[in-house]
Amino acid sequence: MTLIPFAWVRGCTRLLAPLRVLAAQGWLRESDVDAGLKLLHPALRLNRVFARVVQRQWVADDMLELTLQANGNWCGAQPGQHLQLFLERNGVRLSRSYSLTAVQPNGCVQIAIKHQAGGRVSPYLLEHLAVGDVLELGPVYGELSWPEAHEGVLLLAAGSGITPLLGLLRTALAQGFSAPITLLHYVREQGQRGFVAELQALQAQHSNLQVRWSLTAAGVGAEGSVGRFTDKHLADVAQLDQRRVLACGPAGFVGQVQQWWQAAKLPGALQVEAFTAPVLRADVSLREVRLGFARSHQQATANNQLSLLEQAEAHGLKPAHGCRQGICASCTCTLLSGTVRDLRSGALFSEPGQPIRLCVSAPHSDVDIDL
Ligand code: FES
């Protein structure tokens, strides 16, 4: 039950300014104020951002789009960015990041959530989160952006990589982008094609937009392209050499696009975003190393394969993190000594004082970090 309507929650932000000042100066404890505010409405807080679920809509067999309206503490976002979302389950606070599929002028945002079998968060959100429920939102991050040049655009997506690209596409078309756009979306099977009805409607409405799907599961019989990304799928993309290319999907897919791009020596620009954790490189043999966590006064025996984030957590530490994919920067920490390896590129870094992202860095030697 709520004592005030959600519309008042959004309007309260300015009224709470004096309390915010008192909390900032140490006269009040923010947690005490929040405990009182949430009795009025579960989304009302002094500074933290909470949002109410306004709508749920299935957009593929395994993907749900949620429309969220945040309280007045929300500072806005850009299409193509990702949003960190928190929820508490059985007393454990969990967080996941989802791409924004729309940023609406009325302050609502949309995110799309793909079902992850065995996951701790997505099955709950898909099956149990209801309209009217309240979630905490974290910061937004991500640098994918619609190209500024008025040339053609090629969008390459695999799986839920469609979601940030759709956010950008919806906005670009709404703003009148008129150069050719080709969207090629790779999914395992027919039912995993997301937003089909909307994309087909956009295609009918905008003559500059061409949308195609490629089914990657073996033996799928369907019209259109079949199989994983290959340059053959781009054979009929007009003026490919003038296109700006955006690619988003699992790390393996993004790597294939990058290889194609480099081999093709196209003059335009390529933006990529991979949303799965980097895979271990087979060419790095397993070694034991020492990890020093300076602020926690801990030393640990570790290995040179797993990320510093995983290994810190395995030793009972709780480093701040968000995406776990090297995108959001919330796990950034200072390297004090030793050498770390970037799990995405294999590059080595050993300059003391250098900021490193724990989720995509593995120790290459004995390492001390400011954690
Ligand atoms: S958790 Fe997002 S960059 Fe490491």
UniProtKB/TrEMBL annotation:
<dbReference type="InterPro" id="IPR008333">
    <property type="entry name" value="Cbr1-like_FAD-bd_dom"/>
</dbReference>
<dbReference type="Pfam" id="PF00970">
    <property type="entry name" value="FAD_binding_6"/>
</dbReference>
<dbReference type="InterPro" id="IPR017938">
    <property type="entry name" value="Riboflavin_synthase-like_b-brl"/>
</dbReference>
<dbReference type="InterPro" id="IPR017927">
    <property type="entry name" value="FAD-bd_FR_type"/>
</dbReference>
<dbReference type="Pfam" id="PF00175">
    <property type="entry name" value="NAD_binding_1"/>
</dbReference>
<dbReference type="Pfam" id="PF00111">
    <property type="entry name" value="Fer2"/>
</dbReference>
<dbReference type="InterPro" id="IPR039261">
    <property type="entry name" value="FNR_nucleotide-bd"/>
</dbReference>
<dbReference type="InterPro" id="IPR006058">
    <property type="entry name" value="2Fe2S_fd_BS"/>
</dbReference>
<dbReference type="InterPro" id="IPR001041">
    <property type="entry name" value="2Fe-2S_ferredoxin-type"/>
</dbReference>
<dbReference type="InterPro" id="IPR012675">
    <property type="entry name" value="Beta-grasp_dom_sf"/>
</dbReference>
<feature type="domain" description="FAD-binding FR-type">
    <location>
        <begin position="46"/>
        <end position="147"/>
    </location>
</feature>
<dbReference type="InterPro" id="IPR050415">
    <property type="entry name" value="MRET"/>
</dbReference>
<dbReference type="InterPro" id="IPR001433">
    <property type="entry name" value="OxRdtase_FAD/NAD-bd"/>
</dbReference>
<dbReference type="GO" id="GO:0016491">
    <property type="term" value="F:oxidoreductase activity"/>
</dbReference>
<dbReference type="GO" id="GO:0051537">
    <property type="term" value="F:2 iron, 2 sulfur cluster binding"/>
</dbReference>
<dbReference type="InterPro" id="IPR036010">
    <property type="entry name" value="2Fe-2S_ferredoxin-like_sf"/>
</dbReference>
<protein>
    <submittedName>
        <fullName>Ferredoxin-NADP reductase</fullName>
    </submittedName>
</protein>
